[in-house]
Design brief:
Length: 242
């Protein structure tokens, strides 16, 4: 695992965009799985600027949605696909045929999860996972306890995730309780992982992730033994000099 500390969120976003752009330049048909949440938004904006400037070719990428609430109506404002689309896919000029969804309005979410894992396998696994760190150590919606072999599946959100997701939608009551998440097994097998962590509120969980025991109680701690993991944190999240 490689840990890089940046001075602040703006620097983290630039460094994250440099990392992703370099990977895409080396592997133009890479399979990416991309998080929503607040942390990666600066990276996505910086990548969008490069795509608009013509310095980032996204035309051959394959992009997988990381997670989704389950059981939403087609036009629900809380669609994480909508968020992925508005923050990443559309600004980077990625076409629908390049994308594998976790459909939040799927009539059979279990079947949708199985189809997703079949698509991941058909792509040969992920070249890059762009992830945020949950306040309870979740990756995607792999809530603790989460064993490393878990596949993509339907989950119930933990109380901590409901509380953190409340900030996105204007309160706890607005947070759906069920979700679909890309599995631990698929994420941990990614050839490269970029874990983005910003802010003082992530300090304790980042330390447990990087230095604590590897345990299902901190799903992200399994990244300690995954290959190709880069952690980009700002100084608020990792105040030590390293
Ligand atoms: C989002 C996701 C979550 C977030 C995590 C951190 O698709 O899967 O695991 O990455 O909750 O969220 P932020 O970045 O908002 O702190």
């Amino acid at each position: 695992m490689q840990l890089t500390i940046t001075e602040d969120y703006a620097a983290l976003s630039r460094a994250g965009a440099d990392y992703v752009a370099a990977l895409i330049a080396a592997s133009p048909a890479a399979a990416l799985v991309v998080a929503t949440g607040n942390t990666p938004m600066g990276v996505y904006s910086a990548l969008a600027a490069r795509a608009a400037a013509g310095t980032l070719d996204t035309s051959r990428l394959r992009v997988f949605q990381l997670d989704a609430y389950a059981g939403l109506a087609p036009d629900d404002r809380r669609s994480l696909f909508r968020w992925t689309n508005e923050s990443f896919l559309a600004p980077l000029g990625i076409r629908p045929d390049q994308v594998v969804l976790l459909p939040d309005d799927a009539p059979d979410p279990d079947a949708a999860c199985r189809a997703y894992d079949a698509a991941v396998a058909a792509a040969g696994g992920f070249d890059l996972a762009i992830l945020g760190l949950g306040p309870n150590g979740h990756l995607g919606f792999n809530e603790p306890p989460a064993d490393p072999g878990l596949p993509t599946r339907v989950v119930r959100l933990s109380e901590e995730s409901i509380a953190s997701n409340a900030a996105y939608w204007g309160g706890r009551d607005a947070v759906p309780r069920a979700a679909m998440t890309c599995g631990m097994a698929q994420l941990l097998a990614a050839r490269h992982t970029l874990l983005l962590v910003s802010g003082e509120h992530k300090r304790a969980i980042l330390r447990r992730t990087l230095e604590g025991p590897i345990t299902p109680d901190v799903p992200a701690s399994f990244l300690q033994r995954a290959a190709g993991v880069t952690v980009l944190a700002d100084r608020a999240a990792w105040p030590d000099t390293v």
